[in-house]
Amino acid sequence: MTTYPHLLAPLDLGFVTLPNRVLMGSMHTGLEETGDWGRVAAFYAARARGGVALIVTGGMAPNPEGGVFPGAAGLFSESDIANHRRVTDAVHGAGGRIAMQILHAGRYAYGKSCVSASAVKSPISPFVPQELDEAGIERQISDIVTAAVRAKQAGYDGVEVMGSEGYFLNQFLVRHVNHRRDRWGGEYENRMRLPVEVVRRVREAVGPDFILIYRISLIDLVPDGSTWDEVVLLAKTVEAAGATLLNTGIGWHEARVPTIATSVPRAAFAWLTARLRPEVSIPVITSNRINTPDVAEGILAGGQADMVSMARPFLADPEFVAKAASGRADQIAPCIACNQACLDHTFSGKLTSCLVNPRACAETELQYEPTSTPKKVAIVGAGAAGMMCAIVAAQRGHQVVLFEASHQVGGLLNLAKVVPGKEEFRGLVEWFGHMLQVAGVDLRLGRRAGVADLTRFDDVIVATGVQPRDPGIAGQDGANVLGYADVLRGAPVGRRVAVVGAGGIGFDVAEYLVHQGKSPTEDPALWRREWGVGDPADVPGGLAAHGPQPEAPAREVTLLQRKAEKLGRHLGKTTGWIHRAALQMKHVKMRGGVSYEAVVPEGLQISTADGPEMLAVDTVVMCAGQLPDRALADALDAAGIAHHVIGGADVAAELHALRRRCSRFRADTASAQIPALTAVSDWISGVTLSTETATRQSNSLFQKHLTTVSLFPRP
To answer: Which residues belong to the active site?
Structure first.
């Protein structure tokens, strides 16, 4: 008997039966915009082979003004149909099914031609949308219907009409944007007219035996959003108009409540899907922060949904379903919901990848082929870089010995996992440890490898990570000074704290210091109170009337930086605001333009543009950055032992999905400069790369594991 009977149960849609209850949710990767449709096809085919019941593509624009940015992929022409046919053929050849998401961005479109219900500018776009007249609305409906017909011609098994997340159809639904007084505005029956008409006419155009998913917003999390009664009415009316499935969306992109970041509790919004499900007779899909088969099984077994949608987990591991079905759930590479290489890159116009899976969106470029020349390989350092390198090398057939000076694997990931909101890192460390065993890596813990230990190996990889940067502050050796590692390992910290350095490490240390007791990430009710998430049955949009009500801070924290700019300016594009808001709710003082003069028993002496100042604090925590730990590499150089340096030992950046810097290691061809992940040598990747390919890989992310394991995912 399977461990996941509900997850793996078939779902009968009448004209087609899905083999299980797992939907790969829509996520835009940027692959379509490369023009390399072979890469697009390979990406989706890999997920189809992994056993997912139904794939939904990234959003395809129905017309140029509806694209999320100028030149965004869509389905406008015969050539577009041919390109998309390559994708559907590949998915069907792999035994899967795929639906195309039709996404009209409305006022979220990043271009001057954007349109919406009313001329209300979005806070995330500089462009004021054009208010559509009657003819303009008709053209948008017609274009969406045409896109659905073309999707069927291109071989798709269905379409998903995007009516959530604050996009075009959602903009007509709510008074937040829709200020019209004609038949498309005013009372809710008028405001819902557009999405209902779209679904009705799409169904009429594509016929009965074609999957039609409507993505409905269950909770808008913006002022003047939909009430729960309106959500239910829309769901019932959309069902009557011809929808096959209801997929659920949570929040608008402009909402000031996090919805999918790692600090959001798992399945945080499934309670809303559970409430909607008995109101309709078609299957309802739940989404947001579902990243393990156990969580998905629990939702389905509890009757909260008919199907679960997971997007980013299929970046992390395309074989998610197959591994769950075959009793290998512990081998599923876990999505840590960091947003760094997926959403942050999407919203920055970069190609998507994944911090956990180097091959995500690089399926045609990075191949892990069995080696024909097995080597004896030593890897020093069991942080993320060293562990990933060891796993891949061993999987390819090399004999790998992994040395680690401490008594546990994980490196600085073990510090990250204690920060409230980063509990997902626990599972990542566990997964790495398990996969080292599965791959057959000879792991030697508590062993600080020196030159003498490495002389008998064919290849040596140095992954020794980073060391704290010395800020050079007078008095920094005082008893009231701690390093970030000391703090995160549990060293006693006073009531009043100054944190020196406001990069990713500083922000996360501050987060750690202001929390006490249970993390809100592990307590959904506490998390909802902290962020002011209410019930859409009580208040339109689901924002609690009383606003956010976080727990009192455990300490008084002042976060400092030398640069005279807004703190957190360089944090993640889609997550930086969350970290700033979280600390502000805890009354953390943020100060830039600071010079550090001296640490004294009374606190920290600083100077600003206003002159000298004494910060009266009990503890000063140093988060002043990191430097590569190259001691072993230097010793190997001196001894004349060839080696490769990866990860933080190479470049002490924060945990990064994108490595623009190529390694100096040359592969089989004298001209190729290979990114760190593949540079360990061709015995890792199994391919020889040209300079062109190497550059493309480097500029399209390739990869974290070999960038630093520095604490915390921040671009």
So the answer is: 167
